[in-house]
Amino acid sequence: MEEKIGLGIELKNTVDYARFLDQQDPLRTFRDKFYIPLVNGKEAIYFTGNSLGLQPKAAQDYVLNELEDWANYGVEGHHFARNPWVEYHEMFPAMLSKITGAKEEELVVMNQLTVNLHLLMTSFYRPTKERFRIICEAKAFPSDQYAINSQVKLHGFDPEDTIIEVAPRSGEYNIRTEDILSTIEKYKDSTALVLFGGVNYYNGQVFNMPAITNAAHAAGAFCGFDLAHAAGNIELQLHNWNVDFACWCSYKYMNSGPGGVSGVFIHEKHFAQTDIPRLAGWWGHDKESRFKMDKEFNPIPTAEGWQLSNAPVISMAVHKASLDIFEEAGMERLIQKSKALSKYLFFILDEINKSGAEDFIEIITPRNENEHGCQISMLMLKDGKKIYEELKKQSVIADWREPNVIRIAPVPLYNSFEDIFRFGEILQSCRN
Question: Residue 221: which CATH number?
Answer without folding.
Answer: 3.40.640.10
